[in-house]
Amino acid sequence: TPMRYARLASPPPLRIDETEVRLGAPALLSLKPQLPPPVLPNRTLRRLAAPTMLLVGEHEAIFPPRAVLGRARRTLPNLVHAEIVSMAGHNLSYEQPELVNARILDFVMLD
Fold this sequence. Notes:
With 111 residues, the protein is mainly alpha-helical. It is built from 6 helices and 2 strands.
């Protein structure tokens, strides 16, 4: 159910906005997300040549944040920025929108 997914994506101490869950439920249900999501093999990640930024929430419940950053640093050849975002879970852009937007703008403005 959408609330079950929201609890997984935003574990305590993060709060869940039930209105946002209700409004986003139709989109979530139409996507039929895979839980857990598939993991790309290292050989695929090593072929990514484009500049890459990785933001992961400190309360990410699907993959351990420190392990995610470590794997990214070992496998992504053009990793420009990697960061664990505090007070965020899986839904970074909802939980820390100002910080996420600032990081994205900084990233796309790189020469």
